[in-house]
Amino acid sequence: MAQFEIVMPKLGESIQEATITKWFVKDGDTVEEDDILFEVATDKVDSEIPSPVEGKILKILHPENSLLPVGEVLAIISLASEEAEIEPSTESYSVEKYAIDKNIQFSEGSMVEPSTLIENKTVKKLSNRFYSPLVRKIALEENVTFEELESIKGSGANGRVQKIDILRYLEIRKTEKPEKPTLKTVTQDKFQELLAPHKPKVSVSIGAHDQIIEMDRVRKLIADHMVMSKQVSPHVTSVVEADVTDLVLWRNRKRDEFEKKHKEKITFMPVFVEAVSRALADFPGVNASVDGDKIILRKNINVGIAVAKPDGNLIVPVIKNADEKNLVGLTKSLNRLADAARNNKLAPEDIQDGTFTITNFGSFRNIIGTPIINQPQVAILATGSIEKKPAVLELPSGDVIAIRHKMFLSLSYDHRVVDGALGGAFLRRIADYLESFDGNRSI
């Protein structure tokens, strides 16, 4: 009988695991091609996964709320009409077979006790945590027991153990003196204190009439991402005030004509994206990421826009190659992504590969803000509300006071790679492009 394995799909280059939030089928159900099987959630987006084949669900291998790595088998579908019972494999590798499969060379005479084996299948059966092949390989080569690996506090997303975490653990284990307790015998709290950077705990008193609200999954992920960004990047914020009178007057004149001609409503955001894209092309050092002590200059200019969802959480859809689009193209892309975001219809590729982010504080009538960088980017722009203000204009006949439309632009940037000169010049260039806006050139 032919069978088909349903695996956890790869939902993006940087996504290594996802959570099954809902099954739409159960054992014994018959499904047709493109029927929705289950819903998965990542730290980026929620997606409904359809069936690629027609058949009968023989066995669902993982329940809802399971956090699983990409490629993990989730269910088995029979492509034949008859029923069959499927039992998940419980076979474990021997050390020798694992070493051959993973191409790991052991020095002559080296021995690894079976109890210390950190093997993919064993870890999956005993742990809710995901360990990358690199971490498992290091653990195997260094004789790290499963219990030791489980006790390591990970610095990655959702507490994932990264290469640096296991290497730090090995370094601590090597330097432990005989007269002191080894890491295998110290308490879990003491081990975490030795291994991880200190995280201050805030003592909160709760009154009888206070309401306690549990963070939902997305809010927890956002919180972790924001804290991580502040820990990783030294934030600096620069601010300029831009005179956007010509832009406001142009939009007031052309708004109805633009919508009638292009079937799209135009806001100020497409113009902001255009100005940012041009400035990023002028200052490629801001269109970058940091990898250790290396600076990665991004070839593509992909601008993300922070969008508020109906549940109050934020998501950042990305306009790819924004520098190659005119104002009409940017408007169409922005409206499509914003509408999909508000209706939870974004595809995984819609939120990937951003190189710079814009967040619009002005939509809440705020004039200025200091946003947190969206890692692994190195800068983020906040746009404030546009307000009428008296301003001094220098005319050939002398200075005059006039009513102008002005707004604040604030740029938070990673001071590891973007210094004040670069960040200030980049922000000033955005303001210059907005102040010299020419609608005829942009369309």
List the main descriptive attributes of the protein structure presented here:
alpha+beta, 443 residues, 4-stranded antiparallel beta sheet, 7-stranded mixed beta sheet
Unreliable parts: 81-126, 177-198
Number of helices: 12
Quantity of strands, as a count: 19
Structural class: alpha+beta
The gyration radius over C-alpha positions equals 27 Å
The helix content, as a percent range, equals: 25-40%
Q: What separation lies between the terminal Cα atoms?
A: 60 Å
- Give the strand content: 15-25%
Gross morphology: globular
Mean pLDDT over all positions: 80
The oligomeric status of these chains comes to single chain
Main sheet makeup: 7 strands, mixed
Task: Describe the overall structure.
The chain has helices at 95-102, 120-126, 133-141, 146-151, 163-175, 188-195, 217-232, 245-262, 269-282, 327-342, 420-435, 439-442, and strands spanning 3-7, 17-23, 30-31, 36-41, 46-50, 55-60, 67-69, 73-78, 235-243, 288-291, 294-297, 303-305, 307-308, 314-315, 318-319, 356-360, 379-383, 387-395, 398-414. It has 443 residues and is of the alpha+beta class. The strands form 5 sheets. Strands 9, 12, 15, 16, 17, 18 and 19 form a 7-stranded mixed β-sheet that branches. Strands 1-8-6-3 form a 4-stranded antiparallel β-sheet, with no helix packed on it. Helix 9 packs across helix 10 (327-342) and helix 9 (269-282) packs across helix 11 (420-435). It is globular. The termini are far apart. Residues 81-126 and 177-198 have low confidence and may be disordered.
Topology of this protein?
Blueprint: E1 3-7, E2 17-23, E3 30-31, E4 36-41, E5 46-50, E6 55-60, E7 67-69, E8 73-78, H1 95-102, H2 120-126, H3 133-141, H4 146-151, H5 163-175, H6 188-195, H7 217-232, E9 235-243, H8 245-262, H9 269-282, E10 288-291, E11 294-297, E12 303-305, E13 307-308, E14 314-315, E15 318-319, H10 327-342, E16 356-360, E17 379-383, E18 387-395, E19 398-414, H11 420-435, H12 439-442
Parallel strand pairs: 12-16, 16-17
Antiparallel strand pairs: 1-8, 2-4, 2-7, 3-6, 4-5, 6-8, 9-19, 10-11, 12-15, 13-14, 17-19, 18-19
Helix pairs in contact: 9-10, 9-11
